[in-house]
């Protein structure tokens, strides 16, 4: 991985994740509200739909442009070892693992979670 300015703080990364989660939740309500999806979720069905929207939104954005809306707002981006976006297949893998939470909280010394290691990605300051 190329050396990039500063490693982003965990707080900055968590705020970006929260922004993405709220956007996905509101998107899910806008798209699936007619079938009763609510925010905050009122059951496992609502949560699964929100998770699906989160996966699609975040994976497509990270894979194609290297940042989600939350990462963009927080001044972060996701790169592969060449410094470019990681592509959609690796972004889907990364986002699926992120959704499981545990891979994201187990980190290396350089603040890369297991989801980043599996996808060959790194979060850096933009």
Automatic annotation (TrEMBL):
Q: Which species is the source of this protein? A: Aeromicrobium flavum
Q: Which GO terms describe its cellular component?
A: plasma membrane
- TM ranges: 14-36, 48-70, 91-108
UniProt-listed InterPro entries: Pra-immunoreactive (IPR051791), RDD (IPR010432)
Where found? Cell membrane
Task: Specify whether Membrane is a keyword of the entry.
Answer: yes
Topology relative to the membrane:
Multi-pass membrane protein
The record, for PANTHER family, names: PROLINE-RICH ANTIGEN HOMOLOG, PROLINE-RICH ANTIGEN HOMOLOG-RELATED
Q: Key word Cytoplasm present in the record?
A: no
Which keywords appear in this protein's UniProt record, sorted alphabetically? Cell membrane, Membrane, Transmembrane, Transmembrane helix
Name of protein? RDD family protein
**Domain RDD: where?**
8-120
């Amino acid at each position: 991985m190329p050396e990039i300015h500063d490693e982003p703080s965990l707080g900055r990364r968590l705020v970006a994740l929260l922004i993405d989660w709220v956007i996905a939740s509101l998107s899910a309500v806008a798209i699936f509200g007619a079938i009763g999806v609510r925010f905050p979720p009122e059951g496992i069905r609502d949560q699964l739909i929100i998770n699906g929207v989160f996966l699609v939104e975040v994976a497509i954005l990270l894979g194609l442009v290297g940042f989600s809306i939350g990462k963009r707002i927080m001044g972060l981006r996701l790169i592969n070892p060449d410094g470019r976006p990681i592509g959609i297949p690796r972004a889907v893998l990364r986002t699926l693992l992120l959704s499981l939470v545990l891979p994201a909280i187990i980190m290396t010394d350089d603040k890369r979670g297991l989801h980043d290691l599996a996808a060959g990605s790194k979060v850096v300051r933009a």
